[in-house]
Write a structure and sequence with these properties.
The protein has 117 residues and is mainly alpha-helical. It contains five helices and two strands; from the N terminus they run H-E-H-H-H-H-E. It has a two-stranded parallel ribbon with strand order 1-2.
């Protein structure tokens, strides 16, 4: 029972310490009347500052130099990718043993296999 009591007191002390350090409305130093005059919240970042979308490289139409620039893809893999065209999906690079799984994992978010319409 003594260990339970010490554990409970320790947990309570930690909880009080954590709550005391967290800001709350009850501990506000500004009077409630001035709360209406507070500055407005900052606006969301403009679209120009948002991260740019990465253009996906189409493995069905990319040049050897474009494929070679992908991480882990050298001249041999880029030649094999071109030789194995067309692809229905980018995962066929692994299914057809064109590139190893580790290489595919490194490029899968940078490539796409577009279909001709």
């Amino acid at each position: 029972m003594r260990h339970f009591t010490l554990a409970s007191l320790t947990a309570a002390a930690l909880a009080v310490g954590l709550l005391a350090s967290a800001p709350s409305m009850a501990q506000s130093t500004q009077p409630a009347a001035k709360a209406d005059k507070m500055a407005p919240a900052p606006k969301a970042a403009p679209a120009a500052m948002a991260p740019a979308k990465v253009e996906l490289l189409d493995i069905n139409s990319a040049t050897a130099d474009e494929l070679d620039a992908l991480p882990g893809v050298g001249k041999a893999y880029s030649a094999a990718i071109i030789k194995g065209r067309p692809y229905k999906g980018k995962d066929e690079l692994v299914q057809k043993s064109i590139v190893p799984q580790k290489t595919y994992d490194g490029i899968k978010d940078k490539i796409i296999a577009k279909q001709k319409s």
